[in-house]
From TrEMBL:
<keyword id="KW-0449">Lipoprotein</keyword>
<feature type="domain" description="Solute-binding protein family 3/N-terminal">
    <location>
        <begin position="43"/>
        <end position="264"/>
    </location>
</feature>
<dbReference type="InterPro" id="IPR001320">
    <property type="entry name" value="Iontro_rcpt_C"/>
</dbReference>
<comment type="similarity">
    <text>Belongs to the bacterial solute-binding protein 3 family.</text>
</comment>
<keyword id="KW-0564">Palmitate</keyword>
<feature type="domain" description="Ionotropic glutamate receptor C-terminal">
    <location>
        <begin position="43"/>
        <end position="263"/>
    </location>
</feature>
<dbReference type="Pfam" id="PF00497">
    <property type="entry name" value="SBP_bac_3"/>
</dbReference>
<keyword id="KW-0732">Signal</keyword>
<feature type="signal peptide">
    <location>
        <begin position="1"/>
        <end position="23"/>
    </location>
</feature>
<dbReference type="InterPro" id="IPR018313">
    <property type="entry name" value="SBP_3_CS"/>
</dbReference>
<protein>
    <submittedName>
        <fullName>Basic amino acid ABC transporter substrate-binding protein</fullName>
    </submittedName>
</protein>
<dbReference type="InterPro" id="IPR001638">
    <property type="entry name" value="Solute-binding_3/MltF_N"/>
</dbReference>
Amino acid sequence: MKKRSMMFLGIVLMLMVILSACGSSEETSGDTATNKEEEEKKTLRVVTDAAYAPMEYQDKGNVVGFDIDFVKAVAEEAGYELEIEHVGWDPIFVEIESKRADLAVSSITINDDRKQTYDFSVPYFQSTNKILVPDGSDIKSAEDLKGKKVAVQNGTTGQAAMDALLGKNHEDIKKFDDNNLAIMEMESGGAAAVVADNVVVEEYAKNNADKNLTVIEDETFDSEFYGLLFPKGSELVEEFNTALNAVIDNGKYEEIYQEWFGSEPNIDILKEQQ
Ligand code: ARG
């Protein structure tokens, strides 16, 4: 009797092993199916200038920032994988114009000049230029920049604002490939101020309290909006606009914004622009 029940137990155990093996093989094939789906997701090449914290910058070899989380959320919504590469500011425009990259995210202001050569998504972020100076500087407004050396990143709206204020190619405008180099120029005494996007100079002053820097607002600087940049005629624009709006409407945008800025975004102002 004992022997027989042992045998029975043995058979039951064997059956369980066989069944669980079947189960797991089914699971494996299930996994392969989802892997396949993921593989089929098209990978897009995204270029950026990751020297513009907190929007896009490098941290331990990774490109991170608000823009990066944002573009990833939008791509996920649209069903794409991304390969994000730091190429620098001027190369972004070369990569996009030549269609070597599918899109760029880099705090890029939407303006008429750029619209002639590129396509943009709908606006996703409001910005304006601000002036970064050492504490105690006699510069209190844009007007006070006249007669002073001003460092800007080459080819940005900060440079355009200085061209408009001081005159195009004025010798007092010191242009740098990367915004961090413009800030270093001011810190080493080669320029009296830096003009760049508000979130970037504000973050820099806040994170470098020991450097005693002040950020000055001037209402003569335009209100600007960032957009994702695409090659002219790209079919991705519409898909990304739909996904971008979905990310705004489903709360994901706000979540990412809160994570990076600790405050609520003004969604209405973005929607008004569409
Ligand atoms: N918003 C400005 C522009 O479009 C500056 C952007 C600079 N971005 C960067 N990642 N360096 O001209």
